[in-house]
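Contributing new records

If you add data, match the layout below exactly. Sequence lines come first and carry their own label; structure lines follow with theirs. Keep one chain per record. Anything else will be rejected by the validation script.
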Amino acid sequence: MKRHSMKRYLLVVLVALCAVSCGVMNEKTDPEMAARIEKAVKSHELTIDITQILPSQGAMIHSANEYSFTLSKGKADTHLPFVGESHSGGGYGATDSGINFVNCPVEIADDFSNASSGEYAMSFVALSGEEEVRVRIIVWNNGRASITCSPVSRTQMSYSGQVVFK
């Protein structure tokens, strides 16, 4: 009897979590905000304040807006922490192991195939020091954003945050 009630309890919890997450994903977006987001994304002029750092392994790390990612005038600027493993055997400590783009020129490829549902994706390759990093940014029309960085010789890192207008 206890096993049956535990399964029922878990099922109720899972259904409730699904309902809540579906509600969050379908929340109404302010049309003015959606228009500002669309303009910023399409012009590649935006800043994302990072609120969560998501290593490929390990726990999520919350950030109090200590980090940001900026695209402006065809260049990327950021200093993001890296928490992961190196595939090249090089040691950490001699240089900054973060993902750093300083006024780095980028050629952005847009994927607006889901724009009708309020999702805009952009991707490019940039240099962090001498390492190539593939970057994919997804921005939703409510201002939320996700950034995935895939360095050539290190594990993938993801970040999430909010588009800010200054």
